[in-house]
Amino acid sequence: MDWCNTHRFYINTSKTVELLFDPRSVGDSSPVSIHGNVIRQVTSVKYLGVHIDSDLTWHTHVAAVCARIHQRLHFLRRLRLFGVSSKIMYIFYCAAIESILSYGITSWFGNLTVKSKSQILSLVKTAGKIMGSPVPLTPQDLFELATIRQASSILSDSTHALFSEYGLLNSGRRCRVPLCRHNRLKHSFIPASIKLINEQLGGGREGKKGVITVVYECMCTFYLFAF
């Protein structure tokens, strides 16, 4: 608040909420007060199109994504009813359904429960049945594809804030996987992307459909800066 007052930055308390990340309930959960106005505490908030839960389970976001996909499936069925070709329906699927799944997927998909992933996969399979052929990329494929692309972008820019997180092992062939004591950290972006990159470099994902295998150019850039 001191910084805001110094720079004459006014906070609209009616549009401000407080989201507590305290799964063990060990911190101070008393509400924040700004200029005498108590900030409302919430268990979920929508930020840049992604619903963030206080327990980081992403249940609210999954529910919102599934609801939007259900709406699009109705239009997909109408296209089939009108005799539209499978190619056109797939274009509609990529534009109206796959884009919903792909948005911000690196931040939320990795920590989903099996049940949440199954809900999304079921809707994708339904879309494939409507179009008459399976969807080429599953939600897991989309997540891995987006993760590798984002990691490649980071590795190609030595000034990126996360560039230093991708440290090489002494062998110089793989990245060092950070020590993760909890699954929430283990399935977050940095450890997940390093695991995928190591699998790509080691050939562990060779032949897997839908996941790109071109991290080598970015890794070469990484080697230059590392040495």
What does this structure look like?
- This protein is mainly alpha-helical and 227 residues long.
- The protein has three domains: 41 residues, no CATH class; 78 residues, no CATH class; 87 residues, no CATH class.
- Helices cover 50% and strands 8% of the residues.
- It contains nine helices and six strands.
- It has a two-stranded parallel ribbon with strand order 1-4.
Helix/strand layout:
Blueprint (H helix, E strand, L loop, with lengths): L1 H5 L10 E3 L13 E2 L2 E2 L1 E3 L1 E4 L2 E4 L5 H23 L4 H17 L2 H4 L5 H18 L7 H17 L27 H4 L2 H14 L13 H11 L1
Parallel strand pairs: 1-4
Antiparallel strand pairs: 2-3, 5-6
Keywords:
single chain; 227 residues; mainly alpha; 3 domains; two-stranded parallel sheet; two-stranded antiparallel ribbon; 9 helices; 8% strand; disordered C terminus
